[in-house]
Structures are given as C-alpha cells and as structure tokens.
C-alpha cells in the first residue's frame, strides 16, 4: 500500500547467465485505488484516517491498523474514536499486535506506536505501546475512548487487530463475549498512502521453470 496518491512499481529484467536452463515468467499484479486506508469498519471522518465507533450503531466489533493484515504504510497517523452511551465503558481486546518499535517507544527510539486516552488530548495514565505483544486488554474510564496509531518513515510491520465492546459500568469483562465476534478480512499480499487515496497491489509471482 502506498503512503500517498502515487506509487511507482519498477520492474528490472536482467539476462540470465550464459547456458542457463531456467526461464523466468515474471509476475501478474492487481491494483485498486482506495480512500479508507484499508480500514473497513467504523465511520470514516472526511476522508482522513479517522474512524468513529458509536455504541448506538453497534455494541461490539473489530478494528485494525491500516491495510491489516498487510504491512501498514509509513508516515501516517490514524485515530479511532469510541463513543459509548451514558454509564457505558469501552473494552478493547487486542488479538494481534506487532508494531515496529523498541523499549518505551519514545521518539529517540524511532518507534512506531499506539497511544490510548480517555480524552482527545494525551492521557498520562497510559504509556505508548509498540513491539510485538501477546494478546492484551484495555478499558476506558468513561464513555469515551481514543486509540491513536503513529508510524514514521523508518520501518513497518503488520500492525494490530482488536475487538471492542461497549458495556455498562456494572458489567464485568467477559472474554467469551469478545471472542464470539468473528469477522473475516481480505488479505493483501506484498502491499506497498495521505492524502486521500492509497494504492494496493496484490502480486502473484509465477516463479521459474526448469527446462
């Protein structure tokens, strides 16, 4: 997936060694132009990488990083806003998490990271999350919760996938209720985003043939 409205795909062919008995057939690719950053859930806000999840629309579901389960694009900021009804809290369970980064995920480590907040601004209650993590859960203090994803121009990874659930304050977190939500995702292979348009390539390599 590209990180803007343009993408250059260059193919360079070279002569095989003299006497080689191998023929190479190259590749075949499919492309499409998208505006949703590869995120198919929630309600997108003004063609930005900002998505809203309202309890009045749906009590549970899933969300993920751009282009998941392919590699996420570089230099991107995505926000996921969760709005519950009065007396509700937001429960989030990450089923997959692999965001490029090390240590405390601070700027000096050149890490991509995920940030959580009970507010639109920074919340000191939560640190930054990066690296490869096992499944984990997090919950809001009130009816609103923000999840933000930041990537830089260094490296990239697969990102994350999480389940969300709006529950009343008196409710207990039940893993079974979140695990019961099942959603299928289209896998994008060899993905290479911006402004408003991203480009996705799915490439099938035909490989080589021995004579």
From TrEMBL:
Transmembrane segments: none annotated. SUPFAM superfamilies: Spermadhesin, CUB domain. The keyword Hydrolase does not apply. It comes from the Eukaryota. One of its GO terms (cellular component) is plasma membrane. Residues 49-167 form the CUB domain. The keyword NADP does not apply. Gene3D superfamilies: Spermadhesin, CUB domain. Keywords: Disulfide bond. This is (Mediterranean fruit fly) hypothetical protein. It comes from Ceratitis capitata.
């Amino acid at each position: 997936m590209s990180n803007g409205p343009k993408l250059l795909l260059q193919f360079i062919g070279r002569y095989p060694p003299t006497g080689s008995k191998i023929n190479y057939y190259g590749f075949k690719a499919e492309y499409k132009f998208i505006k949703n950053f590869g995120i198919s859930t929630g309600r997108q806000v003004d063609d930005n990488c900002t998505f809203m999840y309202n309890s009045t629309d749906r009590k549970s579901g899933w969300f993920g990083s751009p282009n998941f389960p392919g590699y996420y694009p570089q230099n991107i900021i995505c926000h996921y806003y969760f709005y519950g009804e009065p007396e509700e809290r937001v429960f989030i369970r990450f089923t997959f998490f692999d965001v490029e980064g090390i240590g405390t995920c601070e700027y000096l480590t050149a890490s991509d990271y995920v940030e959580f907040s009970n507010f639109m601004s920074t919340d000191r209650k939560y640190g930054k999350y990066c690296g490869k993590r096992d499944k984990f859960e997090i919950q809001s203090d009130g009816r609103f919760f923000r999840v933000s994803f930041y990537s830089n121009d260094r490296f990239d990874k697969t990102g994350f996938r999480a389940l969300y659930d709006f529950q009343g304050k008196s409710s207990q977190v039940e893993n079974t209720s979140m695990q019961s939500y099942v959603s299928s995702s289209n896998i994008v292979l060899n993905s290479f985003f911006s402004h408003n348009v991203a480009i996705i390539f799915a490439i099938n390599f035909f490989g080589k043939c021995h004579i």
